[in-house]
Amino acid sequence: MILNDFLIINERGLYCPYGDFYLDPQLASGHAIISHAHADHAVHGNNFVYCTPPTAAIMQHRYKRNSGNRIQTYAWSIPFKLNGINISFIPAGHILGSAQVLMEYKGIKYLYTGDYKIQDDLSCERIEFVKADVLITETTFADPAIEHPPATDEIKKLNLSNHNVLLGAYSLGKAQRLIGLISEHCPKRRILVHHSIFGLNKLYEQFGFPLGQYELYTRKLMKDPGQNMVYIVPPLTFNSYRQAKDVLRAFASGWINLQLNNDLKILISDHVDWKNILNMIDKVDPSEVWTLHGNGKHLKAYFKNHLFIKILNDAC
Known about the structure:
By secondary structure, this protein is of the alpha/beta class. It has two domains: 8-145 and 271-315, 4-Layer Sandwich (Metallo-beta-lactamase, Chain A), CATH 3.60.15.10; 151-266, Rossmann fold (3-Layer(aba) Sandwich). The chain contains eight helices and 19 strands. It has helices at residues 53-63, 151-155, 174-185, 195-206, 219-222, 235-240, 274-284, 297-303, and strands at residues 8-10, 13-16, 21-23, 31-33, 48-51, 70-73, 80-82, 85-91, 99-105, 108-112, 134-139, 164-168, 190-193, 215-216, 229-233, 247-252, 264-266, 288-294, 308-311. It has a seven-stranded mixed beta sheet, covered by helices on one side. Strands 1-2-3-4-5-6 form a six-stranded mixed beta sheet. Helix 1 runs antiparallel to helix 4. The longest helix has 12 residues, at 174-185. The two termini are 24 Å apart.
């Protein structure tokens, strides 16, 4: 029997009372299962942390000694038990080391996706599909009106000009994906990266994901009169260079609002769109779908009486 309260939302985040642990807690907790190392899913200061080896490495790179008092890592599909719950990590395809969390309790399988994508991405592990009774999915872009274009088509927009490009991107995940895409599809471009991205690139390479050719970015190079350069910088740096001259501005994201007032629109998302979520539901074949991180109202309307949809956000 599916337990309606197997996961609940409280002031710290998504909590499993049957196993006394949190999934990607928003505040430091006693036992934290971390799906991936983005800051909105991996806070610092947890007591016990359970994650994949790449996620642990990224957290230690960013948080140093405050990554967690005790970090336990598990390879893909290797089961472990936490307070009576059988748990294993399944690749989510979002960024390096990102995991879906498969939890089994009293014969029922609950699959928490974390953030995930189905689009091809050679910079991280490809998503894998498993069957589960309950799918707990993100719904960041769960809207029938949203369809992400192929990333290869978007990155090829950089070939339409030889102007230097200031390209905003999140330092973890998106930046590494962009380096690989530009290296493959825009071979004339010289790639320069911000120092906050450079160290993360080295971690990707240590875990067996070569990204291509890139150099460490400096302000001096920003003023270089040469052409065909792409400066990949994090959001704060991107926003601080409002007055940058002789460069085209672009921000790689699936969020339309981040495309405003830029010279190029680069719609590349690391989340599933509407069709991909439906594909995920088809692959997992759950009896119930519970939604998080967005709005599940469109899924609820789409499936109506055909599939039980519970919007966990409503419990906040």
